[in-house]
Amino acid sequence: MVSQGNRFLKRVLASLVTLAIAGAAQGAGQAILTPDTTNFFLIAVSPLNGAPISFSTKPLGRWLDLSVTIDSSTIGSLRHALQIGSEVWVTDQLSSIIYRYSAQSEKPRYLGSISSVFNPRGMGVVNGEMWVACGDTGSGPGIARFTPGGQLIGSFAAEDPFAVLDLDGTSALTSNIQQNRLDRFGTTGPIGNSLGVWSGTSNLDFPMQITRWLDAGVPRILTVGFSGNDPGLYVYDPATGAYVKRLLTIAFLPEVTVVNPRGAAPLQNGEILWTGSQGIFALNVTTMTSRVIYTGDNFVCAYSSPVDFNKYCPGDINNDSLVDDADFSVFAAAYNDLLCPTLDSGYPAGCPADLNGDGMVDDLDFTIFASAYNELLCP
Description:
By secondary structure, the chain is mainly beta. The chain has helices at 2-15, 325-337, 363-375, and strands at 30-36, 41-45, 62-65, 78-84, 87-92, 97-102, 110-114, 118-126, 129-136, 142-146, 152-157, 161-166, 171-176, 181-186, 194-197, 207-215, 218-225, 232-236, 243-247, 251-252, 257-258, 263-266, 272-276, 279-284, 289-295, 305-308.
């Protein structure tokens, strides 16, 4: 039956030249995403100034409520939301799961979960792969490597990493929470070969997220120092790893003073967004004062990373930046099944071929897929 369906769909696809798809285009724009691990939200703010983004179908700033598609009793501690191609992956550190969603601005679709990890933390896109810092890769702490489609392709040992960042195309950094430093590993040749300690001497303690920052036009590596006597944002020279300075993270709220950061992301207005146990804040790097972006009772916000909704590509089911025969094979099989699967709990099991998110893979999805198939290349 599947082969007959494949031949039928293939003939229809071959006959298509152009299609105008009403409603298929997604809202454009960019955002910075931060998990609110207490309330299971992904908060979206403007990369310009940190203002919560207004979506037409949901509350201000709330791009995604994971409890709609994931049983909230199974969610442990959300750590990092990061885009790879047409998808946004979300690590759940305590539940040892990575949740995958489509990078659609208004109606992100749940695409399924990855459970072949233990204690996943921060992530980084390295040479087209998704690298995940894990508490255990089978033989101890390290980095697990995945294809953009979610297939595990390897791992290597790293001492208790909490984050990973592509440094220069040939090497990547990890934050070592045991030794309170940044380590460097090769990304070409022998992938994962240790290149030694990278960061220079500083008071960095419990390093968490690693990101890039332009300090008055000068490229820098920014690392979150979560604890110790001098928490804050630690700045390093990307060429040498030499320590440059520390930026203070202090936010005064009515009932608590927040000083311990967890994540960070530069804003286009010159401020640095940082996250803490009570929300999201913006640091003025001149005055070393912070303003509130998002906060509330018992909010715990984690890492922050940019997302570009323009990169979402309808029909790229295997997330390889093409809409081709490989995607067609997956779509055709789902088209024959029609109904998307659900779990015993009633929550969706993940249905990537359901391109309009209505719980079925039918002619409406086929129309969207056919248009994308004609374009072939993703943005």
